[in-house]
């Protein structure tokens, strides 16, 4: 291997490892939920459902929202992962997504400060602190899929994402139009082109989602009941939307703002409409507000890439500054009516060890 390539890869690996370490330090997993299962808490309910699915992926006695999220449970079941081992799958997805973001920034700018800053900003969002911080949430896999649609170079990247990611979480389908449009903006390609055909890879999932409820009244009733519930509860959630969206992205909103500002004129109207529909549908159907706004994370990365494109001399230090700021801004999970601050690792460690210390 060329020594310069080896050095570059070593730097990239260092950026990934450092970003993961800083993410876990500043936005620690909630250690007490790892130490002591707490049935009935929202922190454990999703993990319990996910583990039940891993035992029997096609079981119906689980939350309606989880019944179509079959791919991770099927993988865990096929691999015969025992006990709580499947809870490592969300972490695996997060690590791969972080590495992919670092690679994307290195492709755009040789200066390692750009890759470090862009990756730090990414790991500071709910795209990573949710799968790292909570249990059984495979979000990082769908954000990885959306990034592949938006920025993937390989011809198979977007089709594979469209074929697999909807079975991880239906948010991928909601976020697909925006990610696909971002790809056209990033490459300065026309909207009406053969690239539209990649959407056909979503047909298998969409067909089954439409057909099976017609054949099974129980599935239809469960879906209707879930839709009625989220629509009825939306007015009580709506006041928390600004706070939830802020905590979801925080410093990454700078990338979103710059992407919108630099959007070329031919894409502005359709881009605005697509963004509005994406966040609107997400807000109505998903009440874990800080978690779900990560659906627009490709737009934040586009802002970073546009900064590199238009201001190559200043972009590395600006991106690094934004990444450092993102580590220091307060963070929280906003889920339904709850706002749970995300603590640094030392605070979580003290919190989980204190009962043991007091008992001794």
Keywords:
360 residues, mainly alpha
Q: Major beta sheet, specifics?
A: 2 strands, antiparallel
Radius of gyration: 20 Å
Relative helix content: 55-70%
The averaged pLDDT comes out at 90
Distance between the termini: 56 Å
- Class by alpha and beta content: mainly alpha
Spatial arrangement of strands, main beta sheet: 1-2
Low-confidence region ranges = none
- The coarse overall form would be globular
Please trace the helix and strand order, writing H or E for each element. Answer: HHHHHHHHHHHHHHHHHHEEH
Give the DSSP E fraction (strand runs of 2 or more residues).
Answer: under 5%
Number of helical segments with 4 or more residues: 19
Total strands: the figure is 2
Description:
This protein has 360 residues and is an all-alpha fold. Helix content is 69%, strand content 2%. The protein has helices at 3-26, 31-35, 42-55, 71-78, 88-108, 112-123, 126-133, 139-151, 157-164, 171-187, 203-215, 217-237, 241-249, 253-261, 268-285, 289-292, 297-310, 315-328, 345-359; strands spanning 332-335, 338-341. The protein has a two-stranded antiparallel sheet. A hairpin with a 2-residue loop joins strand 1 and strand 2. Helix 3 crosses helix 4 and helix 5 packs antiparallel against helix 7. It is globular, with a radius of gyration of 20 Å. The termini are far apart. 42% of the residues are buried. The mean pLDDT is 90.
């Amino acid at each position: 291997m060329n020594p310069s390539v080896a050095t570059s890869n070593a730097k990239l690996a260092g950026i990934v490892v450092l970003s993961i370490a800083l993410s876990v330090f500043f936005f620690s997993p909630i250690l007490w939920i790892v130490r002591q299962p707490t049935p009935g808490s929202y922190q454990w309910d999703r993990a319990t459902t996910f583990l039940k699915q891993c035992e029997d992926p096609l079981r119906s006695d689980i939350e309606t929202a989880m019944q179509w999220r079959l791919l991770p449970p099927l993988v865990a079941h096929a691999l015969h992962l025992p006990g709580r081992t499947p809870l490592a799958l969300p972490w695996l997805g997060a690590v791969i997504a972080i590495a992919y973001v670092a690679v994307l920034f290195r492709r755009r700018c040789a200066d390692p400060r750009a890759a470090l800053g862009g990756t730090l900003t990414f790991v500071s969002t709910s795209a990573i602190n949710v799968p790292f911080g909570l249990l059984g949430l495979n979000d990082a896999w769908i954000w990885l899929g959306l990034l592949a649609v938006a920025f993937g170079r390989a011809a198979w990247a977007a089709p594979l994402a469209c074929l697999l990611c909807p079975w991880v979480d239906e948010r991928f389908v909601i976020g697909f139009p925006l990610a696909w449009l971002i790809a056209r903006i990033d490459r300065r390609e026309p909207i009406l082109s053969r690239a539209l055909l990649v959407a056909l890879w979503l047909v298998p999932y969409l067909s089954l989602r439409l057909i099976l409820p017609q054949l099974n009244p129980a599935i239809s009733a469960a879906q209707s009941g879930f839709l009625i519930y989220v629509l009825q509860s939306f007015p009580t959630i709506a006041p928390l939307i600004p706070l939830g969206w802020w905590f979801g992205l925080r410093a990454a909103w700078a990338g979103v703002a710059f992407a919108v500002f630099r959007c070329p004129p031919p894409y502005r109207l359709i881009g605005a409409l697509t963004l509005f529909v994406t966040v609107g549908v997400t807000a109505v159907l998903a009440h874990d507000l800080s978690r779900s706004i990560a659906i627009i994370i490709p737009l934040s990365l586009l802002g970073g890439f546009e900064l590199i494109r238009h201001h190559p001399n200043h972009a590395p230090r600006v991106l690094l500054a934004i990444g450092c700021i993102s580590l220091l801004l307060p963070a929280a999970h906003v889920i339904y009516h709850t706002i749970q601050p995300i603590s640094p690792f030392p605070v979580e460690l003290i919190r989980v060890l204190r009962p043991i210390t007091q008992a001794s």
